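Data availability (excerpt). The following record was deposited with the supplementary files.
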Amino acid sequence: MENTTRDPTTDVPCSSVSESFYAVFTTVPVFFLVLIGCVGIAGNSLVLFIIIKHRDMRTVTNFFVANLAVTDIALLLMCTFPEALVTYNLQNGWILGDFMCRATGYMQNVSIGTCTLRKRFLASCN
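Predicted structure:
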């Protein structure tokens, strides 16, 4: 009798499920992470381009929006793409080193803080 481990949730040998499940489990999230990252960077870059290009768009409120766009771009670069890389290499664990581990966590917290401040600012303006 062959000694194989079994998945308790499906009662199927893990070796028969792991390859196909791993392929779907990594491909779909990575696709959406990269898609969200690219759309986010393109949209925020467009906001920055419009504010910089048109002189009448340079108001105090729009400078605040531009600051948030820069923060969003930094978050996307520091969190979304490294997360996609780590999700793709799920079996190897975190491969980007100690600095990126700490920087990613820091940028996620900064993003939450700026998102909260943005909501409070917009609520006070309306």
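Summary of structural features: The chain is about 80% helix and 5% strand.
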